[in-house]
């Protein structure tokens, strides 16, 4: 028996504010999200595994300079790009993750190699780069990751002396940097009923000290288990780390018998929001139900299943 297919993606919670989102820019984001969703869903439609689908979707997100991952990663305080990512297979909870990697074209692909070609789960730079070179992972020069928007964000952050999250606008007093979060991710269920999750990020603009957020930490920013759900988070990573947010969703389903929607809403709105944990998550459960809650102004997101049409959203509806 084939299970219904389901895929959800996010391009980060905390979007550009409505008064700064032009119709043309919104169209560009929606077109990009549609293409990315279709890339991941094509894998499912042709019988591919959920793991392959989320990797394909996140690769496409990493290749799009509009999102804070891969090619579109933000700058650190030192003018570099330090990227984090994680991938998890719900079939057996196998996982691979990397932190602080530089010049890796697609960090999510390196996560897959860590999962399948090493005895480890999480590798950090510089060892992760050594591992990548041993496996001929595609690398790119610094110029590949340069975008003017990200560079301008860094200059503004350096001037103000603050660490900023993606989509912050330095010239707008109405913008709250805490509510602007940039991470990408995908969750999926394949025709065999398997679940998987993937997350990738460039982190914070002007970050220092090799800061690492929740994205590459299994259980905090990324989690998948065929018995419960698959989750990819986006938000102020320090709070998602403390809350073990992704795993908490699975625990609420497994130990309290809550639905996916109930579990996600408790984590995002009742646990994270009151302590300043701005952001959101995407999740899929064993029945193929999808949830995309967020407590920020918006979240770039989209879904496609074998039973529902393409959906793309940016702001609250």
How would you summarize the topology of this molecule?
Elements: E1 6-13, H1 23-45, H2 50-63, E2 83-89, E3 94-101, H3 107-117, E4 122-124, H4 127-134, H5 148-160, E5 184-189, E6 195-201, E7 222-224, E8 229-235, H6 237-243, H7 245-256, H8 260-272, E9 279-285, E10 290-291, E11 298-305, E12 311-315
Parallel strand pairs: 3-4
Antiparallel strand pairs: 1-5, 1-11, 2-3, 2-6, 5-6, 7-8, 8-9, 9-10, 11-12
Give structural notes:
The protein is of the alpha+beta class. The protein has one domain: (Glycosyl)asparaginase (Glutamine Phosphoribosylpyrophosphate, subunit 1, domain 1), CATH 3.60.20.30. It is 32% helix and 22% strand. The chain contains eight helices and twelve strands. The strands form two sheets. Strands 4-3-2-6-5-1-11-12 form an eight-stranded mixed β-sheet. Helix 7 crosses helix 8. The protein is globular, with a radius of gyration of 18 Å. About 4% of the residues have low confidence.
């Amino acid at each position: 028996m084939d299970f219904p297919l389901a895929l959800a993606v996010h391009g980060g919670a905390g979007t550009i504010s409505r008064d700064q989102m032009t119709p043309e820019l919104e169209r560009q984001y929606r077109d990009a999200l549609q293409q990315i969703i279709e890339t991941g869903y094509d894998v499912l439609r042709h019988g591919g595994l959920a793991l392959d689908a989320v990797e394909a979707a996140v690769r496409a997100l990493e290749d799009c300079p509009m999102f804070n991952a891969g090619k579109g990663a933000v700058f650190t305080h030192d003018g570099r790009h330090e990227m984090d990512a994680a991938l998890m297979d719900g079939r057996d909870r196998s996982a691979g993750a990397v932190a602080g990697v530089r010049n890796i074209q697609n960090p999510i692909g390196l996560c897959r190699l860590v999962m399948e070609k090493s005895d480890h789960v999480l590798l950090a730079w510089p060892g992760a780069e050594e591992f990548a070179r041993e496996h001929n992972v595609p690398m790119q020069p610094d110029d590949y990751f340069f975008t003017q928007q990200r560079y301008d964000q860094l200059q503004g952050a350096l001037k103000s002396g603050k660490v900023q999250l993606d989509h912050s606008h330095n010239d707008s007093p109405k913008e709250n940097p805490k509510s602007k979060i940039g991470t990408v991710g995908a969750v999926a269920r394949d025709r065999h009923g398997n679940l998987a999750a993937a997350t990738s990020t460039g982190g914070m603009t002007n970050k220092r000290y090799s800061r690492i957020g929740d994205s590459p930490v299994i259980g905090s920013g990324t989690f998948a288990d065929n018995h419960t759900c698959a989750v990819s988070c986006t938000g102020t990573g320090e709070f998602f780390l403390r809350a073990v947010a992704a795993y908490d969703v699975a625990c609420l389903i497994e130990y309290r018998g809550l639905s996916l929607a109930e579990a996600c809403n408790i984590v995002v709105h009742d646990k994270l929001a009151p302590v300043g944990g701005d952001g959101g998550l995407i999740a899929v459960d064993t029945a193929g139900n999808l949830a995309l809650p967020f407590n920020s102004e918006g979240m770039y997101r989209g879904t496609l299943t074998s039973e529902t049409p393409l959906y793309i959203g940016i702001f609250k509806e």
